[in-house]
Amino acid sequence: MTEISELDPEDKKIITLARSARARNGVAEGAAVRDETGRTYVAGTVALESLKLSALQTAVAMAVASGAKGLEAAALVSETDVPAADDLAAVRDLGGAGTPVLLAGPDGALKLAAAAE
User: What is the value of pTM for the model shown?
Assistant: First the structure.
């Protein structure tokens, strides 16, 4: 497993952004994605009666709505030990099968670095 200290500074940045979105909004998950131009999109879980999206799905949707054509990387901060299949599918849809997905705990410690396959 990759240690957070070994990560690229831009990957550390999206983990930090995801972590702050989770804390700021008091939601179960925070996420951030970096598009092909280096822009970042940060989101928390959406849990409305009529709309339910994970943080990572929301961040991908924000990137798409802003005109992103691809993703360089995605980060998810959550209590979970494995990203949900729907989250990986959303990242794969925009970024492709090899897009890195970084999963960190609420403390920012990296749990998993995987590709959206």
Answer: 0.92
